[in-house]
Amino acid sequence: MPHVALDRLDSALSAGTPDEVYLFFGENEFLKEEKLRDVVEKLVDAGTRDFNLDVLRGSDADPGRVSTALDALPLMALRRVVVIRDLPALKKGSRAIVDRYVAAPAADTVLVLIAPAGWKTDASLVSRTSAVEFTALTTSQALKWTVERAAVFGVTIEPDAGRLLMAATGPDLSAIDGELRKLRDYATNGTIDSNAVRDIVGVSEGRTTSDLIDLVCARDGEGASALVPVVLSQPKASGVGLVMALTTHLLGIGQVLTDRGNRVGPRQQTANLYAMMGEARSAPVARPWSEAVSAMTKHADQWDHAAVDRGLGWLADADSALKNTGLSTDDHVLGTLVLMMCARRQPRKRVA
After folding, report:
1. Which fold has domain 209-342?
2. Distance between terminal CA atoms of the chain?
3. In terms of C-beta density within 10 A (0-12 exposed, 13-18 middle, 19 or more buried), how is residue 349 classed?
4. CA R_g for the chain
5. CA 84, 86, 89, 93: dihedral to nearest 10 degrees?
6. CA-CA distance, 287 to 175, in Å (whole number)?
7. Number of C-alpha atoms within 13 angstroms, CB side, residue 91?
8. Do residues 85 and 117 lie in contact, with contact meaning Cβ atoms separated by under 8 Å?
9. Would you give per-residue pLDDT tens digits along the chain (352 residues)?
10. Are 190 and 196 contacting, i.e. CB atoms less than 8 angstroms apart?
11. CA-to-CA distance for 237 and 329, rounded, in angstroms?
12. Is the dihedral of CA 318, 320, 325, 326 positive or negative?
């Protein structure tokens, strides 16, 4: 079967005409869980939910429990829903039962199989189910989602306020959802503006993750190091996340330097940067891709290949240090890192 788009799934749930077997997979755990709630709420009546909903976890689902859940008939309802979480953890016997069921599913049961982020896609299973992939959103997609989410909460969010919020949370939908729930109570005349984001979320223009990255790309060590504690105090900010975002930007700068050395035109340079980020979607950029590309190309003249190589080495060391908790604080590691990356090597003086 082809992959099922989210809008098609939503239409099927609203019409009460779901497919027999769904497979939810992909990196976006927030949307995955939200859509599972939709499945349960729209397909299983609250009054009979105790009888017509089974939720199993792969590691605990022995063959007997799996068979009982899949063989049961609806009670006082048109259908049952069976959810099996953490699909890869199913033991061999339980997985065999699921595979046989998928080949001939019951018409009055909806089976939802859920694979966690990082799951190595099983092409055979994907082809035999209605597979819905929940991909991680880019910052631009998350901005659009933020506007739609605000509308669900009965408020609107101004474009500048949305961008400011994104500077604090990144494309983390769980964090955005939590901040919007607080902001809707602070909205003036039903509108969330930048002042509300500054007051409630605690982030201001010129003091965001993007601003810190821009300062490092421009090799302004003093400005970047001063901004480190401010940025790390914001929601969802972390030393590891910042290191990964800086790594992506420095790799992009290296790509620009290589392209310029090969006399690649500006348009193709931009295309190469987008391709680079697309090939490494798991690597965060912490901002819209267009802004990242702009920073990479604008500040590439501040770097050479040797400086890029040194910077990447220091970023790898910082990542290791940050993951070894207790050795040093994020503030200290990041502050030292950006000063080292931004320092410019002076030519050696000739000895007379």
Report:
1. Zinc Finger, Delta Prime; domain 3 (1.20.272)
2. 77
3. exposed
4. 25
5. 10
6. 15
7. 10
8. no
9. 557 778 889 899 999 999 999 999 988 899 999 999 999 999 999 999 999 999 999 988 999 999 999 999 999 999 999 999 999 999 999 999 999 999 999 999 999 999 988 888 899 999 999 999 998 887 788 899 999 999 999 999 999 899 888 877 878 888 899 889 989 988 888 999 988 888 888 766 667 788 899 999 999 999 999 889 888 887 667 888 899 999 999 999 999 999 999 999 999 999 899 888 877 655 567 777 788 899 999 999 999 999 999 999 999 999 888 887 665 688 889 999 999 999 986 554 544 4
10. no
11. 14
12. negative
Domain boundaries defined on the chain = 6-133, 139-200, 209-342
**DSSP annotation of 184:** T
Token couple for 31: 């949307």
Residue the block writes with tokens 């607080």: 182
Q: How many CB atoms lie within 10 A of CB 309?
A: 12
- Residue identified by tokens 């950029």 is 285
6-133 has CATH 3.40.50.300 classification: yes
At 79, which amino acid appears?
R
User: Which residue, among 81, 35, 91, 40, has the nearest Cα to 61 in the 3D structure?
Assistant: 91
What's the DSSP call for residue 278?
Answer: H
Could you give the C-alpha distances from 85 to 33, 108, 260, in angstroms and in order?
11, 20, 49
Give the three-class secondary structure for 63: helix
Phi, psi of 76 (to 5 degrees): 55, 35
Two structure tokens written together for 24:
């939810």
Residue 306 to residues 254, 255, 310, 312, 315, Cα–Cα distance (Å): 10, 13, 6, 10, 14
What does residue 261 show for φ and ψ, rounded to 5 degrees? -65, -30
CATH code reported for the domain at 139-200? 1.10.8.60
Identify whether the C-beta of residue 103 lies closer than 8 Å to the C-beta of residue 127: no
